[in-house]
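Justification of resources, computational component.

The compute hours requested in this renewal are based largely on the per-chain cost of generating structure records like the one below. Each record pairs the submitted sequence with a full structure-token output. That output is archived, and it is also reused by downstream analysis tasks.
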Amino acid sequence: MQLKHLSVTTTEGYANRPVGTQALFLAEIGKEEESRNLSLTLRAFRDYQGGRRPSGPGARDLLAFFASVERQLEELDVTAPVVKRSDQEVINLLAHRAGALHLGLANYCWFLDPDKGLCLKLADSADRSQPLAGMCDSARCPQATHHSCHRDTWATAALSGRAFISKIGRGQKTERARLMAEAERAEHIVAAIDAAAHGGPRGTDQ
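The structure output for this chain reads:
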């Protein structure tokens, strides 16, 4: 998210500079995002190997992909059993999926298929080149996953929601119901993250 924000705001200062300079800057930002996404995808795969699963609507698909990567690594071990596998070999197998990764406020978006992007459907967007982070509903989108690194954000949202509810008068039934639904949604996501983190290396989504 920080890199995306940087690429938007900082390039405004390049508006009066030569196109080549601006293009070089954007290319550097792109490389940083690519490196970050590869690192995050590798970390998610290592979590999977250690029995810490993702949760969310897209978890089942991500787990299936990680299982396929693991099978490919096992096949390599059969053909060359004495060779120690490096992270780079794993990264090569993860690269395509990492290229589809977009960071939400409290989720990962694996934007592989625009037709499945809930945000694009909600916005009826003509531009289908990337997801709309501001309209993300990660509890419903089939390409969204939640990981342990997102837990604190959802836990804070749940606590804040409950705090607001306690201050609302009983006469404000509509607002109270809305906040209650949001708090319960956040609590459900936290519970799913916790359950998935202890679900074993071959589990499925909650």
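Residues 19-49 form the longest helix (31 residues). The longest strand covers residues 101-103.
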